[in-house]
Amino acid sequence: MKRIIIIFILFICFPIYAENANMFFPSLKSDKILPTHEVIQTLNIKEEDAAVLFLQQALDSDFSYEWVEKYFYEGTKEALTRVFTNFFNSNLPLKKSDYLIGKIIYENSMTSIPIFIFQTNQVINFLVNLNNDKIVSISYE
User: Fold this and answer.
1) Contact between residue 58 and residue 91 where contact means Cβ atoms under 8 Å apart
2) 44 to each of 6, 89, 91, 123, 125, how far by Cα in Å?
3) Quick one: 26 and 37 in the same domain?
4) How many domains does the chain have?
5) Which residues contact 15 (CB under 8 A, 6 or more apart)?
6) d(CA 67, CA 21)
7) Which domain does 24 fall in, by range?
8) pLDDT one-digit tens code per residue, 5-31
């Protein structure tokens, strides 16, 4: 009987000394733990995002003159074509299983989308303008 009383008192006092209930009951934590990858870190899980859908459509298409016209922003089209033609020629089209999408960063009408491509083992960051659905910039990490 004494044991039951002691256990009952401990259960009553236990949460009082806790900084918060999540410390002792992690299952109560409401934040979702996002999946991660060793290179790209946090992975995107919202595939219905407009910028993600746009980029997936671009990556799923063959690289051509029409591709450049459709997906590259007019002001940076020439520079992006000059720098990335060889990369896109040798890697496009990509299936969803060929790459991972990292944590998306939104800033006004611009969206930064990091992509880890398994074949090349590198991260490429796409800057997409959501106002006109065009790739404004591309960079390697």
Assistant:
1) no
2) 47, 26, 22, 14, 14
3) no
4) 2
5) 21, 24
6) 53
7) 1-31
8) 766 665 565 555 555 555 555 554 445
